[in-house]
Amino acid sequence: MSRQSEAVEIFIKIRPKDIAYFNFTIDAYEGISSVRTMDGKEGLI
Description:
By secondary structure, this protein is mainly α. It contains one helix and no strands.
């Protein structure tokens, strides 16, 4: 039986100074998600 996973893109706008904290928090839950900064000045991840 094959297992399929579905990718979902979610865009979030936060304070730019909180991007690193958010990224480290998500990384702590290994395999749950990956975070990419789209626009660091605007806080868009």
